[in-house]
Amino acid sequence: MSDFRFLDYLFVVFQELCFVCCLCLSSCLFRVCINSCCSLQNIHQFFLYIYYLLMIRYMITPE
């Protein structure tokens, strides 16, 4: 499942984006960054949400 390897990569990128977003205090694509300023707990919730979306996708369209 390449999606899950990609998810690991995305997690690192998201952390970097979130960190930069909080430092610059500029508009960010992820509301999570602005609202909680890089709270790890919220980042994990964000990825749980993506994880569940992936699971649903695999259940609906099995390969």
How do the helices and strands line up, and which of them pair or pack?
Blueprint: H1 2-24, H2 31-36, H3 40-60
Helix pairs in contact: 1-3
Please provide a written account of the structure.
There is one protein chain. The chain is mainly α. The protein is 79% helix and 0% strand. It has 3 helices and no strands. It has helices at 2-24, 31-36, 40-60. The model is unreliable at 23-32 (pLDDT under 50).
Work out the helicity level.
Answer: over 70%
Task: Report how far apart the termini are.
Answer: 10 Å
Poorly predicted runs of 5 or more residues: 23-32
Largest beta sheet, briefly?
Answer: none
Which structural class is indicated by helix and strand composition? mainly alpha
Number of strands: 0
Keywords: Membrane, Transmembrane, Transmembrane helix
Q: Which descriptors apply to this entry?
A:
single chain, 63 residues, mainly alpha, flat, transmembrane, membrane, transmembrane helix
State the gist of this model.
This protein is an all-alpha fold and 63 residues long. The chain has three helices and no strands.
